[in-house]
Request: fold
Amino acid sequence: MSNYLKRLVAPGSWHIPKKVQKFVMKTAPGPHNAGALPVGVWLREHIGLAQNASEVRKILHQRDVIVNGRACRNPQMGLGVFDIVSIPKLGKHFRIQLDKRGNLVAVDIPAESSTTRLCKIRNKTTIRGGKVQLNLAFGANILADNTYKARDSIVVTLGAPKSDEGRFQIIDHFPFAEGNVAMVVGGKHSGKVGKIVEVIRTPSSVPNRVILMDESAGEQFETIDDYIFMVGRSAIAPELEASA
Reply:
């Protein structure tokens, strides 16, 4: 199977030129969906640290790119919403977010903000010993108590790049509930932020509908609960506010 795809059919959220070259790197299978932005494409097309695939591989071989607290070695690794990317040699840190047009963008963040990550709880399972395991949307699993529910968001620590000490400790919790603030990460409203007004639950396989209020525009809009990513309680979390 090819590691490349035609630029003309690349996801619009990548926000890359479509006609400068014929092909672009494909995203490797991973925790995010196929619309995730490959690290190699991000280094070349978004921040201009590399001019070609060879330079990308050299940068990654030297472990110069840290994604969610771990060195990235695969140029096809996908970057998704709220991933944290650090380039220690440059003293630069970024959070991957959606802009108001639904494009994946890298937002500059201070070093202290690069030590934590906002995570959506995809589901939870009970494992041996009766312990509760939270399965997070970016592929990680952590043990916690039964306080947390699917579709809630939690803020976890990322720890040091070469150590598991202090990694994945929960420091904040944003429940999926009416009155709390969410970002839409899929569908035609992708990138919008609003306060949840109502959750319309359907007793079937059809996704629940969520009505949100965009307070900046003074209007309501609707999406499905699969597209909801909680980003705050009564207001958006302060560290996300400037870039939302």
